[in-house]
C-alpha cells in the first residue's frame, strides 16, 4: 500500500482524541488519546478474521478503514477524514510527531471540519448515506435467536419449545430465527435431516403464530471440508481464517457459477418461508485476491449483497454480521456493530462486556446507514454480565434480539426481555450520544 500525505494537525498530546473506524463488525472501533496506539491484531488469524485482510497495520499510531476523526483538544475544530463513496474504501492513518498528527491515506479522502466528534460523525454519516442511496429505514422486528443457548447443537424441537413459550407468555417477538447448526456444512446450504426434517414445515409453524421465520447463513465463506470447497476449488478466493474445526476460504463473488448457486440457495430458502436472513462472516466476500471478474474487492462484495437481495426480494430483512461496515451501506437493513456477546467456550464472557465498545462507538450509524444490532440480549441468571449488558442493549440497541431458553428465565430475565424487546427505538439517529470512547 502506498500512503500519501493528507493533512497535518496540531494537537494537544494530553487532550487530543482520535476516532478510528474498524473494517468490519468485529473490528475494534472507538476513540483514543492521540499519544496512544489503537488496538492491533494479536495474530495473523485475528488479522484475517477481525481486521482488513491485506491491510498492513503500522506499529504505532492509528489506522482507520474509510473514516478517521481528529479532535485536536486545543479548541480548534474537529477534522473528519472519510471515504467519499462506497466505491472504494481507503485506509487512513495518523501518526503523532511532537505535537502534530501526520495524516496519510492510500486512496481518495474527503475532509471537513466540525464542532465536535459527535457532530463530525453525524455529518459524515448523513453525507455517506446519501452517496450510497440508503433507502428509507423501517422499524426493525424483535427477534428470538437460537444461538447463545443452543449454539450448533440446535434442533427443531428447541425452536418449537421456545415458540410455544413466547406465545403463552405473549412476549413481543416478531421473528423466530434459527442460527448456525442447521446446515450440512459452511458453504453447503442444505439442512441436516436428522435435526431438521422440514425447513418449510418449520417456517410454516412459525408463520401460523403470526411471526416471521429467520435463518442464519455465512454465504461468502466455505469451510475447507465442505462439498463446495471440494467440488469447486475455482470458487474459492483465499484464506479467511479458522472456525468449525477447519480452515475457511472466502468466495469469489464474481464467478458466475458461484453466483448461480448462491442465488438459488437464497431463493429456495425464501420460497421455504424465510424472510429474515442473518448473513454472517461476510468479510469473506471482500478479501484481496484474483477474481474471475474485473472488479475490486469492495465492488465484488457489494455485487454479492445485491445478488442476495435480488434472490430474497425487497421485503426480506437482511442483517449483516462480520461484515465490512462502509462497503455494506445501502445494501442491508441491519448491521451488527460489535463482536459476539460471548463464545461457546466462555459463556461468562470472561468478565468482559465484549460488545459494549463497538455498540457505543458506532451508535451514530443507527438511523443513518441501517438499524444497529448490538448483538443478542442474554438475560438468564447464569450470565453474570446480564444486567450491565442489558443496559447497553437498551440504550444503544436498534435491532432488539434475545437468545435464551425462555423456560430458564427468572423473574428479572423475563421482565427485561419483555421490556427491551418491546421498546425498540425508531430507525432514526439516536439523540444526545456520548463521545465515542469517552
Describe the protein.
It is globular and about 65 Å long. The protein contains 12 helices and 22 strands. A hairpin with a 2-residue loop joins β16 and β17. The chain has an 8-stranded parallel β-sheet, with helices on one face. The chain has 2 domains: about 5-130, no CATH class; about 145-420, TIM Barrel (Alpha-Beta Barrel). It is of the alpha/beta class.
Key structural traits:
8-stranded parallel β-sheet, alpha/beta, globular, 2 domains, 5-stranded antiparallel β-sheet, 438 residues, TIM Barrel, 12 helices
Q: How is the topology of this model organized?
A:
Blueprint: E1 4-10, E2 17-20, E3 30-33, H1 44-50, E4 62-65, E5 67-71, E6 78-82, E7 91-97, E8 100-105, E9 110-114, H2 117-131, E10 143-145, H3 147-150, H4 156-169, E11 175-178, E12 183-185, E13 188-191, H5 199-207, E14 212-217, E15 221-223, H6 227-231, E16 236-243, E17 246-251, H7 256-272, E18 274-279, H8 297-312, E19 317-320, H9 325-328, E20 334-336, H10 356-361, E21 371-373, H11 386-396, E22 401-402, H12 411-421
Parallel strand pairs: 10-11, 10-22, 11-14, 14-18, 18-19, 19-20, 20-21
Antiparallel strand pairs: 1-8, 2-3, 2-5, 4-7, 5-6, 6-9, 7-8, 12-13, 15-17, 16-17
Helix pairs in contact: 7-8
- Which percent range fits the helix content? 25-40%
Strand order in the sheet with the most strands: 21-20-19-18-14-11-10-22
Rounded to the nearest angstrom, the distance between the terminal CA atoms is: 32 Å
Name the overall outline.
globular
CATH names the topology of the largest domain as TIM Barrel
Beta-strand percentage? 15-25%
- Looking at CATH, the homologous superfamily of the largest domain is Aldolase class I
Q: Structural class per helix/strand content?
A: alpha/beta
From the alpha carbons, calculate the radius of gyration and give it in angstroms: 21 Å
**CATH C-level category of the largest domain:** Alpha Beta
Count of all domains: 2
> What's the β-strand tally?
22
Amino acid at each position: 500500500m502506498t500512503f500519501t500525505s493528507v493533512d497535518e494537525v496540531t494537537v494537544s498530546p494530553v487532550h487530543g482524541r482520535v476516532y478510528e473506524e474498524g473494517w468490519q463488525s468485529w473490528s475494534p472501533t472507538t476513540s483514543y488519546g492521540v499519544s496512544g496506539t489503537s488496538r492491533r491484531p494479536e495474530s495473523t488469524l485475528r488479522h484475517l478474521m477481525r481486521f482488513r485482510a491485506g491491510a498492513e497495520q503500522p506499529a504505532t499510531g492509528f489506522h482507520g478503514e474509510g473514516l478517521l476523526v481528529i479532535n485536536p483538544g486545543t479548541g480548534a475544530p474537529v477534522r473528519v477524514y472519510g471515504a467519499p463513496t462506497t466505491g472504494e474504501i481507503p485506509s487512513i492513518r495518523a501518526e503523532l510527531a511532537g505535537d502534530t498528527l501526520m495524516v496519510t491515506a492510500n486512496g481518495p479522502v474527503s475532509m471537513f471540519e466540525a464542532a465536535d466528534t459527535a457532530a463530525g460523525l453525524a455529518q459524515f454519516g448523513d453525507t455517506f448515506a446519501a452517496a450510497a442511496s440508503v433507502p428509507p429505514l423501517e422499524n426493525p422486528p424483535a427477534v428470538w435467536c437460537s444461538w447463545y443457548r443452543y449454539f450448533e447443537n440446535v434442533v427443531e424441537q428447541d425452536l418449537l419449545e421456545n415458540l410455544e413459550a413466547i406465545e403463552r407468555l405473549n412476549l413481543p417477538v416478531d421473528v423466530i430465527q434459527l442460527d448456525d447448526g442447521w446446515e450440512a456444512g459452511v458453504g453447503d446450504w442444505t439442512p441436516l435431516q436428522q435435526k431438521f426434517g422440514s425447513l418449510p414445515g418449520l417456517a410454516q409453524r412459525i408463520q401460523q403464530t403470526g411471526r416471521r421465520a429467520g435463518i442464519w447463513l455465512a454465504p461468502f465463506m466455505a469451510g475447507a471440508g465442505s462439498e463446495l470447497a471440494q467440488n469447486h476449488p475455482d470458487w474459492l478466493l483465499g484464506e479467511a481464517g479458522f472456525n468449525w474445526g477447519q480452515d475457511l476460504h472466502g468466495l469469489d463473488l464474481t464467478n458466475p457459477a458461484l453466483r448461480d448457486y448462491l442465488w438459488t440457495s437464497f431463493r429456495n430458502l425464501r420460497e421455504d418461508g424465510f424472510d429474515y436472513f442473518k448473513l454472517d462472516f461476510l468479510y469473506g466476500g471482500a478479501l484481496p485476491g484474483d477474481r474471475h471478474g474485473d472488479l475490486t474487492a469492495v465492488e465484488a462484495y457489494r455485487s454479492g449483497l445485491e445478488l442476495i437481495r435480488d434472490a430474497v426480494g425487497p421485503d426480506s430483512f437482511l442483517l449483516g454480521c462480520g461484515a465490512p461496515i462502509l462497503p455494506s451501506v445501502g445494501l442491508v437493513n441491519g448491521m451488527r456493530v460489535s463482536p459476539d456477546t460471548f463464545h461457546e467456550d466462555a459463556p461468562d464472557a470472561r468478565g468482559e462486556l465484549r460488545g459494549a465498545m463497538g455498540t457505543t462507538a458506532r451508535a451514530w450509524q443507527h438511523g443513518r446507514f441501517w438499524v444497529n444490532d448490538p448483538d443478542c440480549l442474554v438475560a438468564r441468571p447464569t450470565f453474570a454480565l446480564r444486567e450491565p449488558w442489558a443496559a447497553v442493549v437498551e440504550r444503544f440497541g436498534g435491532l432488539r434480539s434475545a437468545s435464551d431458553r425462555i423456560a430458564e428465565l427468572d423473574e428479572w430475565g423475563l421482565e427485561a426481555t419483555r421490556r427491551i424487546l418491546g421498546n425498540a427505538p425508531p430507525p432514526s439517529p439516536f439523540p444526545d450520544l456520548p463521545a465515542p470512547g469517552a
